[in-house]
Structure formats: structure tokens, C-alpha cells
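User: Quick sanity check before I run a bigger batch. Here is a single chain. Can you write out its predicted 3D structure?
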Amino acid sequence: MYCSIIGHPLTKPRSVFLWRKFFKNKNLKIKMYPMDITNNAFNEQIKKLKNDPNFLASAITMPYKKRIKSKVLIIDKISKYANAINFILNKNGVLYGFNTDVYGAIESIKKCNKKKIIIFGFGGAGEAIFRVFNKIYKKSTFVIVSKKKKPKDIKSKKVRFSKEIMVKNLIDCDLFINCSPLGSNLKKDYLVKSPLSLKQLNFCKKNITIFDIVYNPKKTLLYKYTKKLGLNFINGIKMNTIQAEIALEKIENYYKK
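Assistant: Done. Predicted structure follows.
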């Protein structure tokens, strides 16, 4: 039996290390491979995995978290809310899809003030986090910073879309979430970029929390800016660890049946 992580491009994904360590510690005879799949090969590769009796599960990362939805069966409520999938489990040729990212995100910001939330980036992770947070944090207001158009099903007055970060929104923001790849090691130029500049951070409240879902590197340019100003900062390691733990628990339970 084997598992994988599917994405493009893949740059030393942390899941490979975590999953291999877990399987070894649990004495499970399961292998783990990174699968860098190009856009053109995606459909064919998913079809092959679905029909492979040795394929057990896979983490799904950029840019396929939304594309994989049409290939899987989604049964749990949170994953349905999320509208994106980051983990699939193969049960007798049926691919079940889950979003474990959002559970990690919920736990990461559990103690934070969430009255006004700014979400930067509306890709697979950003949209998933927004849709779940919007469901469970009824009193929160949201500003989504993205060049994408506002989905037609989002009609609430407590949700606003903006193509850029506005100072007026930063001033009273309680929680800023970076759901973009800026600051990550996915591309060299991302490493020297930040969703917020030092100047913009100066407009923020001192008790704001900056939650950056990037986990590699641990200390991004955004981290360095926040530390210079003494602002609260959370990176994506806890979120990544929790989502992996949930996925691995599902794998272990199914494998031992």
C-alpha cells in the first residue's frame, strides 16, 4: 500500500516527512511518495490512482484543492462548507474527499479575537477557511482581498471583497490571515515577498494577530516585519501538523480494518 502528496510544483513537502515518520512509528507497511503532477496529466493520474488497489490516500496541495472536488465523494459537513479538498482516501475504488486544513486553521486561531477578519488570497485554502469561518463565527465580519470576483452565492453584508488591502480595513482588523503563497519557498521570488508591507503593518492595532498559513520557511518576511513591530504572529506549522494528524488517523483506522 502507498500514499502520496499531489501538487505542482512540489518543493520538499512537509507531509512526506510527517507521514513516513508516522507509518514507521506505527509499524504500518505503507509507503509515501511525492507526486508532482502537471495540469495536463492531472485527470489521467487521478483516474489511475482511483483504480489502483494499492493506492490508499493522498494529501492534495496547490493548485488542485478545488479541481479535485469533482473526482471525490464528500460526506462530512465541514468539508462541504470548505468547497475545497486537501485529503483523499481510496475506499474500494471510491475516492472520499476531506478538508483537514480548516480544522488546523480553527485550532490555530482558537484564542484570537475574531471580530473583524481580513483574508488575503482566495484560492483553495483561502476560500475554504473563509467559508468555514463564515459558518462557525456568526458575529465576525470579513474582508476578502483578492482579484477574483465575489462568488454569486456569497450575499451576506458582513462580507466584503477588495482587490487590494485598504488602510481603513487594517486599522480595526483583529485577525489578518495570509492564504497566499507569498513568503513561501514554492518559488524563489515568493521568499522575498510579503502580503503586508512594514508601512501597512504600522496602521494595525497592537493586539492584531497575523496568521500566516505558510509553514516553509518558518520565518517569512511577514514574520520579520511583525516581530520588528511587536505584533502577534502565528505561522502555518500548527495548522499543517493538525491537518496531517487528522489525515493520518483516518488512514490508520481504515488500514487496520
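The chain has nine helices and twelve strands.

User: Great, the batch can go ahead then.
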